[in-house]
């Protein structure tokens, strides 16, 4: 009798829920809430992201909001700090911001000006890689603060939207996705 053990990617993929017409008609939203709600799914997610982490990382930058949920435990797991990149008006003190285009609109992200030291090795973490605009904006903020992006890790990559290629063209070639659809 053989027993099959699911890989972290299989666990995560099996828990992602597809929601049609959200946040607007024509958009197919991949919801990771069931992944996060499952102890097994959350552990598999964090373990896979830690396992793919570049060797030397000073700080994990998590993108609002679900990038916080998986980014913070990744930071703990690799022994680094954690920095949130947020929507405007959510962070105190001096901040810098960057506006960008999403697959279904426009958005702006911000980070505190003193979030990390210049030269810090940064791992960018988010839940979904679609067109790459959000990760590229987080990378631009990181670089504006003098950080060096050493990798990008996401739970889910939507390959048909070209995000990986867009990030490669932007100089962000080291991209890891737990699941690619």
Automatic annotation (TrEMBL):
InterPro entries reported in the protein's UniProt record: Ade_phspho_trans (IPR005764), PRTase-like (IPR029057), PRTase_dom (IPR000836), UPRTase/APRTase (IPR050054)
Boundaries of every Phosphoribosyltransferase domain copy: 53-156
Enzyme class: transferase
UniProt family annotation: Belongs to the purine/pyrimidine phosphoribosyltransferase family.
GO CC, alphabetical: cytoplasm
Compartments, as annotated in UniProt: Cytoplasm
Function (record text): Catalyzes a salvage reaction resulting in the formation of AMP, that is energically less costly than de novo synthesis.
Pathway where it operates: Purine metabolism; AMP biosynthesis via salvage pathway; AMP from adenine: step 1/1
Name of the featured protein: Adenine phosphoribosyltransferase
Native organism: Candidatus Avipropionibacterium avicola
Keyword Cytoplasm (UniProt): yes
Record's catalysed reaction(s): AMP + diphosphate = 5-phospho-alpha-D-ribose 1-diphosphate + adenine
Gene giving rise to this polypeptide: apt
The enzyme's E.C. designation: 2.4.2.7
Quaternary structure (record): Homodimer.
């Amino acid at each position: 009798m053989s027993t099959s053990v699911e890989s972290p990617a299989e666990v995560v993929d099996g828990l992602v829920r597809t929601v049609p017409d959200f946040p607007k008609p024509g958009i197919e939203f991949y919801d990771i809430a069931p992944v996060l709600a499952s102890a097994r799914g959350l552990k598999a997610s964090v373990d896979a992201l830690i396992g793919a982490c570049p060797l030397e990382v000073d700080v994990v930058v998590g993108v609002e909001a679900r990038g916080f949920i998986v980014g913070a435990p990744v930071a703990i797991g690799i022994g680094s700090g954690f920095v949130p990149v947020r929507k405007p008006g959510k962070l105190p003190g001096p901040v810098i911001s960057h506006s960008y285009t999403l697959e279904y609109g426009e958005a702006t992200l911000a980070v505190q000006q003193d979030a990390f030291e210049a030269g810090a090795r940064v791992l960018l973490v988010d839940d979904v890689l679609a067109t790459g605009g959000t990760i590229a904006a987080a990378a631009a903020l990181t670089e504006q603060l003098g950080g060096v992006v050493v990798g990008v890790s996401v739970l889910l990559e939507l390959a048909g939207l070209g995000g990986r290629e867009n990030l490669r063209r932007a100089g962000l070639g080291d991209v890891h996705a737990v699941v690619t659809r």
